[in-house]
Amino acid sequence: MPDHVRTADGRRLRVEVSGDPRGRPVFLLHGMPGSRVGPRPRSMFLHLRGTRLISYDRPGYGGSDRKPGRSVVDVVQDVARLADALGLERFAVAGRSGGAPHALAVAARLPDRVTRAAALVGLAPRDAEGLDWFAGMAPSNVNEFRTASTDPERFAARLIPRSNAIREDPARLLRELRGDLTADDRLIVNDNTVRSMLLRNYHEALRTSAYGWIDDVFAVTGAWGFDPAEIRVPVLLWHGSQDAFSPVSHAVWLADRIPGATAVVDPTAAHFAALRVLPNILNWLLADESSASRALTPPAAPDPGRSAGPDGRAG
């Protein structure tokens, strides 16, 4: 398995495959900032469930070449190219946070190839009719997204030195976010296993430049290039109602817009709880119709003082 794939326009996409090499394929689209090495279930979990998990760096992150001016819908060609290179005709797709709109784009534009799609703690389009896009959002995110929309040059000029500092000290990003984290989110990110994966993820995301992050923000706050109402494959929307980074109202809007979408809202969870439920999300993505509802059963609560690791076990 090569560690990178060339696109039709000559760009390099850095890819990583984990789990069962003969298992059922699922594309996992990372957050913002993020990379192919972001948090995921442990390899043993994936093997036991016959899952082949495919992740890659979106353009500008990690080992993938930048694509200036990309929109959310541009992810479709990249995922299709990766699937072709891997010999995959059909596959499921999931996206977390900034990866969620991209997963929905793949579901909308590759209906003959996508079996199911899941969007965790994602955002709605910036021009979503009837949605107060910034309501319930942390002030830091409001400032970031508004600046990206109104003064993109200023936004990029601010994010470049910030990204450089985070690359040198990835824990800096978690410290910056701490004031907006709920107690549950703090428990999750303070878990040694999760924290290690997050720090590795942030470092790799920003290893070559800040432009993956910059272009991601421009993409999610700009025109997506598709309407979520186009989606015809089964979709699961998962959200924590306490999320201040991606307010739950965005998931509610998407659930109303996407035909037949299943929405699951955890009243006690916030943003990083999406890492805890990812094993159940994978179960749903690969379940047949008769067992789909059982695949959504919430994981057991962790012991006090310990957070659930990405394989659903306390760790």
Structure description:
This protein is 39% helix and 15% strand. The protein has 315 residues and is α/β, with parallel strands linked by helices. An eight-stranded mixed β-sheet has the order 1-2-4-3-5-6-7-8, sandwiched between helices. β3, α1 and β4 form a beta-alpha-beta unit. It starts with a strand and ends in a 20-residue tail after the last helix.
Give a brief rundown of this model.
The chain contains twelve helices and eight strands. It is α/β, with parallel strands linked by helices.
* Strand order in the sheet with the most strands: 1-2-4-3-5-6-7-8
The proportion of strand residues reads 5-15%
Low-confidence stretches: 289-295, 297-315
What structural category characterises the helix and strand content?
Answer: alpha/beta
Biggest sheet descriptor: 8 strands, mixed
Helix and strand pattern: EEEHEHEHEHHHHHHEHEHH
Rough outline = globular
Distance between the termini: 30 Å
Q: Helical region count?
A: 12
Our Rg estimate from Cα atoms comes to 18 Å
